[in-house]
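Structure in, sequence out. Go:
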């Protein structure tokens, strides 16, 4: 399929569910799903992410509410409308690959096209064998004659992904599919899945509580806490402007700003941070090989930012940024100082330091950050 020919879908969810144990889900979201894009359903453990995904998949019914994709009503409890899973044309992949043990890899991957797919949107070019083509894209073609017991965890998950994609689903639902894999396997598979979605134009919803995974893979994010949707938006907007302290806490305490690698030499990277025209250049210790031009997020913890009045302070830090104090808020025994350095940045300082520096909103300061304290997450 030519990804450019696919249209943006709109998913509208307004559901409620109450479990016997007392958990209450009351979730409203209204999101666009662009072809090939990834929406991340993010939140702490027990937030209700999997429950929502299962309702989207048609594996579970809400007590009340509606689920709509474009003009299709998947569920409307009041009107007694219920579209079964096979009529929703979604692909589903869980943390543990659920393959048929008695079938070969080839037959596992082809299962969906032989059993019930009527969409004919295989995601591959005309005349191609979708099973072969998707298996090749996911690097499991050579495993075609094996059985699931003969596969590693990463290989099995690739087969599960291939099986979900071969029928050409209009939406792929992923419930922590990388969670059980070791780090290198996880990193490779994340990259391959991202590429595959772009190539086939399939939009996906990914459940995760891993912020690195969310940043690496997501275009947009829905933050869930305690059974409710607390914030929705483009991933960099939500990470850089959490709606409230609960959302900020669930996302982590770091500033997350879009950046681009400029140069790489001698174990040090230079990255440009901030909006065009106001770029600030940061020096960053190189942990992973990143080529000039690579798009990344620069993550900086507030406790790693030191404030001073002159450029010479904290000479050991590589980065000394001119900053303006935007606001100061007490956070327990310390103060959180929000700065404008050409990009938004927070610093945590003791009250005594704040008094010594005589900081007030509008003060000009120098923010010092060590090159080893800037963490880069590549965009894939
Ligand atoms: P995690 O990241 O740990 O997977 P989650 O955000 O996906 O968490 P859910 O799995 O949706 O959370 O669970 C939300 C809450 O609903 C939890 O408290 C869970 O124990 C409860 N829950 C989920 N399914 C059921 C069920 N069938 N019966 C009773 N309680 C349930």
């Amino acid at each position: 399929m030519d990804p450019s020919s696919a249209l943006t879908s709109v998913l509208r969810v307004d559901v409620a569910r109450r479990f016997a144990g007392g958990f209450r889900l009351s979730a409203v979201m209204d999101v666009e799903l662009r072809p090939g894009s990834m929406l991340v359903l993010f939140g702490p453990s027990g937030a209700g992410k999997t429950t929502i995904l299962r309702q989207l998949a048609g594996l579970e019914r809400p007590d009340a509410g509606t689920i709509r994709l474009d003009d299709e009503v998947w569920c409307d409890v009041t009107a007694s409308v219920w579209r079964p899973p096979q009529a929703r044309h979604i692909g589903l992949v869980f943390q543990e690959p659920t393959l048929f043990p008695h079938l070969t890899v080839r037959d596992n991957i082809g299962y969906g096209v032989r059993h019930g797919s009527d969409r004919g949107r295989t995601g591959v070019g005309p005349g191609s064998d979708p099973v072969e083509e998707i298996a090749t894209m996911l690097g499991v073609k050579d495993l075609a004659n094996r059985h699931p017991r003969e596969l590693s965890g990463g290989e099995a998950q690739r087969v599960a992904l291939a099986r979900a994609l071969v029928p050409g689903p209009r939406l792929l639902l992923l419930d922590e599919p990388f969670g059980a894999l070791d780090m290198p396997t996880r990193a490779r598979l994340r990259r391959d899945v991202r590429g595959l979605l772009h190539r086939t134009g399939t939009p996906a919803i990914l459940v995760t509580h891993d912020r690195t995974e969310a940043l690496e893979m997501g275009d947009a994010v829905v933050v869930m806490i305690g059974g409710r949707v607390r914030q929705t938006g483009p991933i960099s907007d939500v990470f850089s402007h959490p709606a409230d302290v609960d959302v900020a806490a669930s996302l982590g305490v770091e500033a997350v700003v879009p950046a681009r690698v400029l140069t790489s030499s001698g174990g040090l990277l230079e990255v440009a941070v901030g909006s065009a025209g106001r770029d600030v250049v940061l020096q960053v210790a190189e942990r992973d090989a990143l080529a000039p031009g690579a798009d990344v997020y620069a993550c900086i913890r507030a406790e790693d930012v030191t404030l001073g009045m002159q450029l010479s302070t904290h000479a050991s830090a590589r980065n000394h940024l001119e900053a303006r104090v935007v606001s100061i808020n007490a956070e327990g025994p310390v103060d959180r100082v929000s700065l404008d350095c050409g990009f938004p940045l927070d610093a945590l300082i003791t009250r005594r330091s704040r008094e010594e520096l005589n900081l007030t909103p509008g003060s000009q300061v120098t923010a010092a950050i060590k090159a080893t304290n800037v963490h880069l997450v590549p965009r894939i």
